[in-house]
Amino acid sequence: MSLLRKSFELHGIIQGLGIRPTVHRIAKRFCLGGSVQNLGNSVRLELEGSEGSIEAFLCTLLKEVPSATRIDLIKELRSEPVSEVVSDFKILESAPNSEYAVSFPPDLALCRDCLAEIFNPADRRYGYPFTSCTVCGPRYTVIEGMPYDRERTTLKFFPLCKDCQEEYRNPFSRRFHAESIACPKCGPKMRITDKSGKALNQEPLSTARQGISEGKILALRGIGGFLLSLDAFNSSAIKELRLRKQRPHKPLAVMMRDLSVVKRFCHVSAIGESLLQSAEAPIVILDLKEEARRELPVDLLAPDTETLGVMLPYSPLHQLLFHPLKGDPVQAFDVLVMTSGNKRSEPICIKNEEAFLRLQDIADLFLVHDREIVLRADDSLVSIQEEVPQIWRRARGYSPRGFKLKNTISVPSLGMGAELKNTAAIGFDGQIVMSPHIGDLETPEAVDDFEQVIKCFPEFLRREPERVLVDLHPDMHSS
Ligand SMILES: [Zn+2]
Ligand SMILES: [Zn+2]
């Protein structure tokens, strides 16, 4: 049997999405030697084995890539005969000084396997709100630098315990080289505080659930920032939120426990179902059923409209807010209001201290944690027009995925966006990478957010803009 050594480069949306562990697992299955390495904008593969095994490897890889990954191109670089193959297959350290641009990964909704773990009393991650693996968990919002590795995320403050290290090193584990993993022993922790930020000496999740069941407004530190949550069946709590937030009419988004609850209250098409359950997990605007009018205070949730913005619990923390753990007397919630944790026209809060200050007149309780959020990301918002999804607010889950262009952009260019509903963008080579929705640049907080984005995006993508595109209006902050 003739043996070969072949090198390939994989291009696409592949960083931080579990591609390297997947490659490793499949290489082992076909007894291939070699290595996989993250180069920044691509993944480099060295494969050693028979031609048939290498072919089978590539076919299997395309079938088994993690769901959020997109391989656009497999480029063969080299092929040479070898007399024997090394039996080992290694994941090499990322190349930190790659001169290439990188595609940095979006946050991914909780996967089924992690969901099963957090509700399994025998699992060591039972009830743990920061459970994640190679195919789910925070990415974009915790990244401090590139390439995407744990040491360049805010998880670096939580060194892995022995059990987590074993999972991280075990090629047959779902957590093999998963950068954002943690467990109750070594990872971030929750705490609950009163409205002044004073810690309450109580179990955080059950206290938060108890508070919601009593009609309180909870400020919750989520994936991309703070959210305000309350019982969506409680009319007086919704009225109170609208009063405190000075938001009399704008619709409030809700989170529903699972798809069966969504189907009880809303008309959902197949495309709607797949959007709700996708790794991006956006808010989807759905038509209300008669059932919703009978049971929910829809005139308070979404006045003057026949629709409601609905999402499913996309992080372990949200799941644990909906469902009681053993011994918690408060029943599962069906529908919770889940609206952005901000004051009018300000961006959502991401830091605990900032939230205690800015949301103290709105929230009764704060459910916070110590996993820092670096980059802000609102929940994305999608509507469905004639069975085609239209993204109205492109943020968590979608950003910072790039758009491919037909033509190449001659020099790296930074687009500063508009004054209202701002989004910045950087274009280079054959793609444009848009920032998440930043919002109206009317407050110092929003301008700070905008400035952080236009600093980080070129840095993380390793593209120094040679051209900056601005609106000619002289008074816009973005100009
Ligand atoms: Zn997972
Ligand atoms: Zn651990």
- Rounded to the nearest angstrom, the distance between the terminal CA atoms is 65 Å
CA-atom Rg in angstroms: 23 Å
CATH fold name of the largest domain: DHBP synthase
SS class: alpha+beta
- Write down the overall mean pLDDT: 91
For this structure, what is the CATH class of the largest domain? Alpha Beta
Stretches with pLDDT under 50, minimum 5 residues:
none
Largest sheet: 11 strands, mixed
Active site: 20, 38
Pathway: Protein modification; [NiFe] hydrogenase maturation
Pfam families: Acylphosphatase, HypF_C, Sua5_yciO_yrdC, zf-HYPF
GO molecular function: acylphosphatase activity; carboxyl- or carbamoyltransferase activity; double-stranded RNA binding; ligase activity; zinc ion binding
Spell out the blueprint of helices and strands.
Layout: E1 3-13, H1 19-29, E2 33-38, E3 43-50, H2 51-64, E4 70-82, E5 89-91, H3 112-118, H4 162-169, E6 190-194, H5 204-213, E7 218-221, E8 226-231, H6 235-245, E9 254-256, H7 259-265, E10 266-267, H8 270-276, E11 283-288, H9 290-295, H10 298-301, E12 307-311, H11 316-322, E13 335-340, H12 352-358, E14 365-369, E15 381-385, E16 388-393, E17 402-415, E18 425-434, H13 444-460, E19 467-469
The chain binds zinc ion (2 copies).
